[in-house]
Structure formats: C-alpha cells, structure tokens
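Technical annex, item 7. During the second reporting period the consortium partners agreed on a shared format for inverse folding records so that results from different sites could be compared directly. Each record opens with the tokenized structure and is followed by the designed sequence. A conforming record, contributed by the partner at site C, is shown below for reference.
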C-alpha cells in the first residue's frame, strides 16, 4: 500500500491536477450550452439568485425537485461574481474533472505507487467520456470527485485504522449526496460491503465511528429535510418516489435501455484506452487476491451491474468506471515498461486491438453522424475528418511503438492523441456546429425584441431549456390547441416559437388571424401576435 508521502508526491499530484485543468478548460467557453441539461442547470442557478431561495430550486419559475442543490449553488456563486457565461457555467465541471484526475492519482498511489498514479491520472484525463463530461456544465464530475475522495479516505482508514480518515470518508459521501442524491453514499457503500464479503472481514463494520453517519446526515441530508418540511408530500413523491426510486425501478423522462446498454457506451467512452481495457482487466483478475485488484474489479463491476439493472439509463451514469479502471490499465502499462513477462504478453493483445479501437471509433462517428445527421455531418466533414485523423494517427503511432517495444512512447502517443484533439474540437469543430443550433440565436433575438409584459411561448415542440436560458424570459410550453388559444389571449403581444415541419401542422391550423411570421431559423418559425384576436372560451389574463 501507499508509502510515506514525500515532497516528490506533492509535485506529481500538482502536475497531474494542473495538466488536467488546462486540458479541461482550454476553449471551455466556445459554443453555446447543450440542451437539455447545461442550460437547465444554469437557469436554475440564475433563479437561485433571482429568488434568493437556496433550497427550493426553480426552473422557469416553477419548483424543481429533481436533484439536490450543491452544484447549482456553485454555479450561482460564479454567476454572481463573474456573470453567467458558457465559461462560468462550465468551470465547476472542469475543476471537478481535474479533481477526478487528482483523486485517481491518490488512489493509484495508495494501492500501488506514485508512478502508477501519474499514469492513471493521465489515462483518466485523456479518456474521451471523462474529457467530455468535464467540459460540460453538469454535475456528474462533481459527484464523482466526491465519491472517489470518499473511497480513498475509507481505504486509508481500512489500512491504517485512522478515525479521522473514517470521518472524512463520511464528509465526502455527504457532499456527493448533496450534489446528486443518495447514490453518493450508495455506490461507495456497496463496494465497501462487497470488499468485506470478498475478504471475509464482516467484523470491519465495527471500525466505523458512530459519529460518521451523524456527519453524513449533517452534510448530505439537510436539503431533503428542509424541503420535506416546506413541501411535504409533493416533494417526497417527486424527489424521492419519482426521481429516486422511480429512476431505478422504472423509466424516467423517456430514457430506457436494454440490459447491454452500457457495453457500447464503455467501448466508446474509454477511447483511446479501449484497446487496453481487456488486458487491464485480465491483469487484475490474475491478481484478484490483492487488495488493489479487488477494489478496482468490485468498483467497476458493481457500477456497471447497478446501472444495468436500473430502468432508466444514460451514458453519464457509468462515468465512475473510467478513473478506477484507469488505475488497472496504468498498472498494466507500468509493469510492461518494467519488463514484467506477464504484462508484456498481455500488451500483445493491446497491439492487436488498437486497429479495432480505431475501427470502432470510425464506425461510431459514421453511425451517429452520417446515418443520423447526414446533412450536418456532410457539411462538417472537414472538422470530423480532422478529429478522426488525429485519433487514428495516435493509435497507429502507438501500435508502431508497441511493435518496436517502445512502451513509454506508445503510452505517450495515445495520451497525446486526445490532447491534440482538444484544440481542433474547440477551435474548429464546435464553432462549425453552432450554425446547426438555432435556439440560442433565436432566444437572443427574442430577448432584444421583447418588452415588459410580453409573453414568450413555444408550441409543438418539447421543452428546450436553452430557449428559457438565452431569452431570459419565462416560457409557456403549449401542447394543445386550447392551451395555444389561452396563451394568445393572455397579453397584447405574444411571441411564439414553433417548428417549421409538417408533423406539427396542428399549430398552424390553430392560429387565429392576426398572428404573423417574424422570421425563420434552422427549422423554427418565430411568430408574433401584436393585435386583438378572437378569445372565445379563453380565460382572461390574470
């Protein structure tokens, strides 16, 4: 287990953290926020400042009971200090992503050594799903950062018997819970209990200080308690019944998935380290009696099994797999560098799988791009080809280095492929994609036109959070002709955003005379009602 901390370890930890932070923040403000989550959380944070209410979160003027508030508190803080922008909305995810790389270093150093920690931190920071999540204004990186620290502190307590480490584990689990709910405790706890079972150490539960759960409750549960007192059955039914239990035992917000849903997610999300994963797992399995292997295998296995069993599935749910799996992959590479025969044999499979690695990436781009968004992908073929070429070149260079037994150079080539891809993504791909994202442009145009008392509505389309965020106007979402008539009669001036497609012809058929076209952008029409229309059957404006 980890040796005494040295000054060199501090320098390594700072280097890993700073390098990850630079990678995650480069060009961070490029491109508007992605629907739905980024603008939704940003708007909730803005409404915290508008309402002055830290506990009852609001979106579009209505209470929002989906997740706890810690991440939105952080966004509100930077919004208040520096204003709301794409950069300030996303910065906490990037800081948390750098924290994930740092926590990976700490775990790997504890389980193995500092050199493995540096390599594991580098793998984590250059894993495509970790990179993507750390550059979006969402709270999954913050949740994972706290969970990894909880795991690390428990392992320190497990090895040393430190009461202080035990208590810090409960603090970090409490912060994870205040970020995204009880999963912040549940996932680390399942791994710990499984570890006791595997090692036949059930008596370990007696080492947990009584003060630990008290600290967890004080840090992680106040939001649930306060909101229960404030809103009673409504809060419990939504926050606990629907979004907690309902998310696991059923399908929430139309996000289902087959039992093998996370297999392709992990294959693509682990890129460019996908080819190393099978050999890394094999290395760990052959040493499954060692604590390090047990921790990594249990964490990854339980995470995938838990979310595969859940009814609701999203790619970001398995984010916790990557940094811990990175430790096992790093250990394999480290042993190969040292010339360990077993590791060198397993690295042959890495070399065999590297071309497959590239093929999977190209196929994923082709399927998702040219099949689902053929017109857009054709227009963006230049940046997409460049990104693909960078990843392909990195994998092929790594393959050549492995064949020449230059393992360090192969490792560097894979890591640098993603590092080089970030400027291409930030400076070419994302700006080119903006032309196909009309809602932010429409919203800003409406914000410039609208006057106090005007109404903004959207009909024939699902709720689009960026319309609310970028327009800075409350949006009325219209789903039926009766709702549309009611909205049009509410004020003298009503701006209406509708899709310009035949599937929503009911909207055009329900429009009374006096509603005129203001403009059209990217498949959406902006209509304006600024004169009296027939309001038969509609309730008067409040």
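Designed sequence (site C submission):
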């Amino acid at each position: 287990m980890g040796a005494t901390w040295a000054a060199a370890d501090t320098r390594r930890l700072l280097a890993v953290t700073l390098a990850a932070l630079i990678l995650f923040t480069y060009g961070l403000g490029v491109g508007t926020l992605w629907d739905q989550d980024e603008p939704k959380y940003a708007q909730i944070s803005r409404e915290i400042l508008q309402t002055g209410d830290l506990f009852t979160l609001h979106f579009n003027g209505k209470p929002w009971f989906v997740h706890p508030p810690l991440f939105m508190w952080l966004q509100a803080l930077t919004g208040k200090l520096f204003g709301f922008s794409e950069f300030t909305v996303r910065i906490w995810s990037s800081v948390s992503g750098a924290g994930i790389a740092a926590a990976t270093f700490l775990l790997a150093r504890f389980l193995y050594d500092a050199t493995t920690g540096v390599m594991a931190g580098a793998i984590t920071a250059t894993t495509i799903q970790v990179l993507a999540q750390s550059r979006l204004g969402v709270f999954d990186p913050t949740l994972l950062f706290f969970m990894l620290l909880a795991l690390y502190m428990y392992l320190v307590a497990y090895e040393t018997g430190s009461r202080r480490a035990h208590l810090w584990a409960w603090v970090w689990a409490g912060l994870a819970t205040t970020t995204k709910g009880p999963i912040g405790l549940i996932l680390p706890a399942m791994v710990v209990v499984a570890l006791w079972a595997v090692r036949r150490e059930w008596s370990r539960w007696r080492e947990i200080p009584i003060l630990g759960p008290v600290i967890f409750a004080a840090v992680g549960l106040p939001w649930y308690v306060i909101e229960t007192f404030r809103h009673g059955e409504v809060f419990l039914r939504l926050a606990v019944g629907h979004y907690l239990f309902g998310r696991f035992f059923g399908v929430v917000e139309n996000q289902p998935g087959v039992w093998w849903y996370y297999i392709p997610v992990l294959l693509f999300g682990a890129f460019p380290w996908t080819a190393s994963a099978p050999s890394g797992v094999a290395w760990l399995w052959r040493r499954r009696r060692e604590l390090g292997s047990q921790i990594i295998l249990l964490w990854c296995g339980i995470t995938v099994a838990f979310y595969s069993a859940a009814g609701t599935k999203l790619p970001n749910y398995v984010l916790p797999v990557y940094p811990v799996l990175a430790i096992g992959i790093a250990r394999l590479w480290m042993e190969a560098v040292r010339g360990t025969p077993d590791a060198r044999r397993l690295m042959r499979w890495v070399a065999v799988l590297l071309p497959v690695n590239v093929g999977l990436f190209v196929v994923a781009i082709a399927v998702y791009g040219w099949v689902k968004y053929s017109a857009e992908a054709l227009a963006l073929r230049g940046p997409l080809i460049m990104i693909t070429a960078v990843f392909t070149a990195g994998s092929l260079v790594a393959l050549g280095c492995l064949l020449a037994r230059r393992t360090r150079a192969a490792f560097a080539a894979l890591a640098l492929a993603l590092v080089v891809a970030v400027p291409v993504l930030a400076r070419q791909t994302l700006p080119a994609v903006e032309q196909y994202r009309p809602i932010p442009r429409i919203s800003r145009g409406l914000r410039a036109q609208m006057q106090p008392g005007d109404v903004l509505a959207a009909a024939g389309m699902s709720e689009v959070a960026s319309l609310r965020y970028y327009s800075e106007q409350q949006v009325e979402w219209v789903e039926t002709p009766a709702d549309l008539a009611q909205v049009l009669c509410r004020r003298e001036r009503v701006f209406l955003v509708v899709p310009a497609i035949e599937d929503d012809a009911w909207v055009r058929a329900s429009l009374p005379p006096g509603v005129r076209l203001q403009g059209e952008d990217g498949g959406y029409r902006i209509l304006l009602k600024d004169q009296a229309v027939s309001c038969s059957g509609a309730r008067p404006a409040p």
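The chain has a mean pLDDT of 91. The first helix runs from residue 7 to 25. All partners now use this format for quarterly exchanges.
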